[in-house]
Amino acid sequence: MSKVKLHISGSKSISNRFLIMEALAGQKVEVQNLSNSDDALVMQKILSNQNETNWNVGHAGTAMRFLTAFAATQNRTISLSGSERMHQRPIGPLVDALRKLGAEINYLGVEGYPPLKINGQGICGGELDIDGQMSSQFISALAMIAPRLSGGLQIEIQNKLVSRPYLAMTLGMMRDFGIDTKWVNSSIQIPETKYTVGNYQVESDWSSASYWFSFVAMGIVDEISISNYFTNSYQGDAALIEIFKPLGVDAILHKNELVLRSSGDRVEKFSYDFHEQPDIAQTVAVCCFELGIEAELFGLETLPIKETDRLLALKIELAKLGGVVQILNQDTILLAKRIQKIPTETVQIETYKDHRMAMCFAPLAFKYPTIEILDPNVVTKSYPDFWEDVARLKK
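Now predict its structure.
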């Protein structure tokens, strides 16, 4: 296999932020390369039919968090629900913050978890303290509605902030749309003002690119070119270029095209803090396993509360292939160097309704016919074209 060219759809993180800001601005504008992921389609559907008062986000965690805050700005009562797994993912800190601002929110099931009944009448600005260790999406959700609140909003972040680049993305996009946000140390100030939304182009999704880094690292393809990426990206996962360098991938960004080539130059032991790029950890873990690299992956405290408990899922599924994984303090994975060959009998990889589980194991399934991925269509949550793009490697 020599060279492959791909185009990846727009970042779902940027797309969902854009859709919320567009709705808060109260105007429709032209947008290019919007994500075609399930998460973005759910957000589009709900925001394009706001007369509906029963909103169901399915598996879309970003939509749940952002729409909880958005619904609190609407002059009506909205019921917000999701899938069974979504009702197991905590939302209490965001609800508590919105209640302090005057929103009337009731839990329709277990306290601290969706589904919710939201009445936003009377919500106003002020000052909030919020724990940064749970999810940066809670803070992003509050930040985006802040310009609509009387007096704006001052947010004080308590404790260490997880996924910091995603909050930086939110505030950067808000500045693009006319909001003078200020972030100094742990304090964020956002004035009451109007969004000014113009035509917009969404950068392609860096998280989705991570799987192609893995294909190259494993020697499945010599070179992959992917568009459309920006030099000054808002996406923290652009750190992929540095993360995969010690795993044998050279990456060059030139004229919005990301070119990946195998260098063959790999380390024997890999260590990285994924505190700011948690969505990349699964891909790196599987890649290190295949390459026979001992690995320590830490900063993973948000992974147990994602679509599944991703730490446990990785441990179980890699064990099927002979991998030895230890989980420490629910935030660290220790992966032993692989010494066993891939089993010659069929091994089924469970995906746990988690799109990233399917895609991170995809290079192994491509390389070894004995590996079968169950429920492969779960990838539509973030990358609907994934398997079609994988099929292009066989041509």
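The longest strand covers residues 257-266.
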